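2024-03-11 09:14:02 DEBUG pipeline.ingest accepted 1 chain
2024-03-11 09:14:02 DEBUG pipeline.ingest length=805
2024-03-11 09:14:03 DEBUG pipeline.predict start
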Amino acid sequence: MKISLNWLKTYIDLNDTPEKIGQILTDTGLEVEGIEKIESVKGGLAGIVIGEVLTCEKHPNADKLKITTVDIGEETPSPIVCGAPNVQSGQKVVVATVGATLYPTGHDAFKIKKAKIRGEVSEGMICAEDEIGLGQSHDGIMVLDTDVPNGTPASDYFDLDDDHVFEIGLTPNRADAASHLGTARDLKAALQTEVKWPAVDEFVVENNDRPITIKVENQDACPRYVGLTISNVTVKESPEWLQQRLVAIGLTPINNIVDVTNFVQHEVGQPLHAFDADEIAEDTVIVKTLPEGSKFTTLDEKERLLSAADLMICNGKSEGMCIAGVFGGIGSGVKETTQNIFLESAYFSADSIRKTAQRHQLKTDASFRYERGTDPRVCVYAAKRAALLIKELSGGEVSSEIIDLYPKEVENFRIEVKFKNIYRLLGIELERQRIFEILGSLDIEIEEESKDKFLASVPPYRVDVQREADIAEEILRIYGFNNITIPESFNSDYLAEFPQKDASKTQKGITELLVANGFYEIMTNSLTKPVYAEKAEDLDSAQSVEVLNKLSEDLGVLRQSLLYNGLEVAAYNINRKQTNLKFFEFGKNYFRQDKDYNERVRLGLFMSGYRQAESWTARAEKIKFHDLASAVQLVLKRLADSKLESDVIHQYPYDYALEMSLNKQVLVTYGKIKDTLLKESGIKQELFYADMDWDLLLKLTNNNIVYQEVSKFPEVRRDLSLVLDKSVAFQEIQAIAKRHNQHLVRNINVFDVYEGEKVGKDKKAYAMSFVLQDKEKTLTDKVIDRVMNKMMQAFENELGAIIRK
């Protein structure tokens, strides 16, 4: 959004520099992204002064040239060769000094240099009107009637009206500031001064020769509609001052009628629209919607298909004249031949305009304001202001009463505000009187006040002030963020509770994670065979939930485990030559305990076959236990950061498995399924299965982001080769290492395992790496050796390990 400083100064007294004003606007929340200087005359007449011709003689070598001496305020007069026929001694003239750049009207710029013209020295140029960009005349030099001192800058003499334009990054919530008077309101509050609104007291209705009937059929989309007619206007080019105002903020002048509507829109923030009154059939304006698919041609000559939800301004024949609040129609717009106009000033629903503008991909200055929320109380003022300007510039007269259809007044927002909450959000205990002064300067009234709270009445044009926190923001932005002292210690606060963990979103995240790692999701029937619970050692048929109205005996009970349905899926695929399997299932298991029935959600992972298909680039390797372990750890790291206890188990339905628990509650069990069970299921290859308690895992889900500072001290790696009994698990080694040097041991890894004759029967050799790091200092060799010796001694004493050196 662009705001002209000169335009702004017509409403509020501003004596600070443009840069200072820009900083004030930014501090109040209207962030100034840039300030552009706009020169009324290109170059600003830099290097051009007022001088006096002292002598004027004929040039000895040219009939049409004269040699002059000109006093330009220097110690010695300047010799200047001049070809103007009207130059004479004693004249006050405009002189471009050596080094000045001129921007002639309609010609390229050039720089004044010291030169010799037909053998005579010339140090400057006496200028005509067009040569300095002040007009079109080139009949002769400019002769001034003035007694200003010689050497006076021409920019001071001509009182050039240079302007500065602020480029404001207006946030969507600040619709109230989308105009010059809206911006002035913030400056008024910040500078504790007054804003002068243009007077409309002179508005009168001259006659009622052109009455217009107005009907609003959709009052939800149009709560207020104001209109009047102006007759006998003359459509022509706008005066220079109006064109300058519009050009300064990036608008193109069109004609005096349209330019006035644009001017008032950018002045007060109220969009207006002028119709050719002679094009309004039956002298009737109807605010309504048209049937779905109706055709309408807009001012850009494009035919558009309307939605049944698009609010339209129609004539007495229900023909569209304008897409309300968005774009005018080609048939009813103001033309050069227009003599009578109907002026619209309305308040439309922000939701209605926003949806229509988005539907038709139309973004106009009017829709920009309407879809953010305009002021319903300024409609009549804006209509009067525009009518007075149109009369002044077009010679017309108001020829109807102002019709104001406003059945239900838009009331102020009333917000109960507690002082303690204001102090808490501001960070300081501001005086109550100062709080009320700031709110009053923003047109927010205090209707009730008690010891602990007050009732704020907010005008409807402040659509962004709806809550107690918004009142605090209004106070703070005017009081000044920079005036809040920074405490020695910081704390934080929030206005809303953090959302609860969403189980469905968490499940979706894990699903995407597994799919990204090559798994396929399956969904099996919750009904299953009763024989599974009767034969399986890990299930109890007494806990089976039996279906009363069975479809078949094979589907007579609800499942107690995801495993057996998964085995059916695996067998079905393997029998059809799909032997490399990686799939998962989220599903419920069901149990009966006495007269109670329970269900729990589980996550099952299945892996069988080869890691990847055969290829000439890589040897086919069978899936192993550690492939499943990696997948399990992938899920656990996403869900919980708790340290889980691990135990090796050998119980049905596993040949071997690892059980992970927290506080004696089993979270995951995963391992290799027994060959006998696979054979019974018709599977002739190894299969690995993980059973995860999803309900319990959800309770451990950690949504918090924990930050840990990255140590600036280096890591150190040391390798060991240990010979151990086969019965010793890696977890035992890990636990001993952490227990003895927990603050230094960062990571432990097994990078090779050997079993064979070289290490002996029932033995295995682990090649292990230990990463050490101290967060407070660099580790020395002495410390590293002490740590490693301590661990090796513990391995030998507690595990009977042999350290291979």
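2024-03-11 09:14:41 DEBUG pipeline.report The domain at 413-479 is CATH 3.30.56.10 (Phenylalanyl-tRNA Synthetase; Chain B, domain 1).
2024-03-11 09:14:41 DEBUG pipeline.predict end
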